């Protein structure tokens, strides 16, 4: 079944994403209705300080109903390339600029209902220049030791999927080297 060309009907158009109702052929005949969030893509940035600590944020998330431990992240503003978005989000949310940026991986965030593709980056050679958060953002910054982050992931203290994915891959790679 090829769903790539199914545009669907626009149900909602928001500031950061659209929702489309897409009907696709079902096995055995008929159609299946899907509500699809159409997203421009996003980035997550794992910033490593010179001493090896990771730049983490505590971010108030209305949808989750609480403040979460996260890596800095954000939505791309087309036609903005992912690497530029990563540097912008790192600066806005944490106040750090990076002289070096390397792609870690890319992944779908929630492919069951959303087209969002997220690019993960590792940022190094950091300089603190001051936060520039958007209106309404409640973000605090903390540098955290990787050993503590491992514990925070396994204990459930870090409950954000993108952060767990990027940190997990990074820490796995660091352990292998």
Question: What are its keywords?
Answer:
177 residues, 3 helices, Nucleoside Triphosphate Pyrophosphohydrolase, globular, 10 strands, alpha+beta
Describe this structure in words.
The longest helix has 16 residues. By secondary structure, this protein is an alpha+beta fold. It has three helices and ten strands. The chain has two domains: 30 residues, no CATH class; 135 residues, Nucleoside Triphosphate Pyrophosphohydrolase (Alpha-Beta Complex), CATH 3.90.79.10. It is globular, with a radius of gyration of 18 Å. The protein has a four-stranded mixed sheet with strand order 7-4-9-8, sandwiched between helices.
Q: What order do the helices and strands come in, and which of them pair?
A:
Elements: E1 9-13, E2 18-25, E3 31-38, E4 42-47, E5 54-61, E6 66-70, E7 73-75, H1 82-94, E8 96-108, E9 117-128, E10 139-144, H2 146-155, H3 161-176
Parallel strand pairs: 4-9
Antiparallel strand pairs: 1-2, 2-3, 4-7, 5-6, 5-10, 8-9
């Amino acid at each position: 079944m090829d769903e790539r060309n199914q545009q669907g009907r626009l149900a909602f158009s928001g500031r950061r994403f659209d929702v489309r109702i897409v009907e696709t052929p079902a096995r055995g005949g008929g159609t299946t209705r899907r509500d699809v969030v159409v997203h421009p893509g996003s980035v997550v940035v794992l910033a490593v300080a010179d001493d090896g600590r990771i730049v983490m944020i505590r971010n108030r998330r209305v949808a989750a109903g609480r403040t979460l431990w996260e890596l800095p992240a954000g939505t791309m503003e087309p036609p903005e390339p992912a690497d530029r978005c990563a540097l912008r989000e790192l600066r806005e949310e944490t106040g750090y600029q990076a002289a070096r940026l390397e792609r870690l991986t890319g992944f779908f965030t929630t492919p069951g209902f959303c087209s969002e593709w997220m690019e993960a980056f590792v940022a190094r050679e950091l300089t603190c220049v001051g936060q520039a958060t958007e209106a309404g953002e409640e973000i605090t910054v903390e540098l955290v030791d990787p050993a503590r982050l491992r514990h925070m992931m396994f204990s459930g203290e870090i409950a954000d999927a993108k952060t767990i994915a990027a940190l997990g891959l990074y820490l796995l790679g660091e352990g292998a080297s």
